Amino acid sequence: MIAILQLHDRAIHFDPLDHEDQIEQERAKTYVEKRTCPEWHGGFLCVDRTPSPLHEKPGWHGEGFFYKNSDYSLTAQVVVFPHNLCIVDYVIGVSGISICCTNLVCAAI
């Protein structure tokens, strides 16, 4: 986690107003249109999440970390371009399906 945070500004950047990022966005839309169903033609980002089990229940807000597998975990969600897998953003938060949507709202994109 500390390593990711130290490299954040150099490795992860996406500005929808930046010309180069707009070009990448259009490339991703073209890729999605060619490789998926027609209903997704305007999409240009993918999200993947991975829960990481915790050794024990956290002492503070522990129930918020309870996951569907009956364990306590922390979730890392990564937002990427589908055509080149370039990381656009990431969110680290508590697990659970309802929380995943909440975590993405906190993303900068």
Molecular structure report:
With 109 residues, the chain is α+β, with helices and mostly antiparallel strands. 33% of the residues lie in helices and 22% in strands. It contains three helices and three strands. The protein has helices at 2-11, 19-35, 97-105; strands spanning 46-53, 73-80, 87-94. The chain has a three-stranded antiparallel sheet with strand order 1-2-3, with helices on one face. The longest helix is centred in the first third of the chain and has 17 residues, at 19-35. It is elongated. It starts with a helix and ends with a helix. The model has no long low-confidence stretch (mean pLDDT 75).
End-to-end Cα distance: 20 Å
Q: Would you list the SSEs in sequence order as H and E?
A: HHEEEH
Task: Give me the secondary-structure category.
Answer: alpha+beta
State the low-pLDDT regions, or none. none
- What is the residue-averaged pLDDT? 75
Record the SSE blueprint.
Layout: H1 2-11, H2 19-35, E1 46-53, E2 73-80, E3 87-94, H3 97-105
Antiparallel strand pairs: 1-2, 2-3
Which labels suit this protein?
109 residues, three-stranded antiparallel β-sheet, 3 helices
Briefly characterize the structure.
This protein has 109 residues and is α+β, with helices and mostly antiparallel strands.
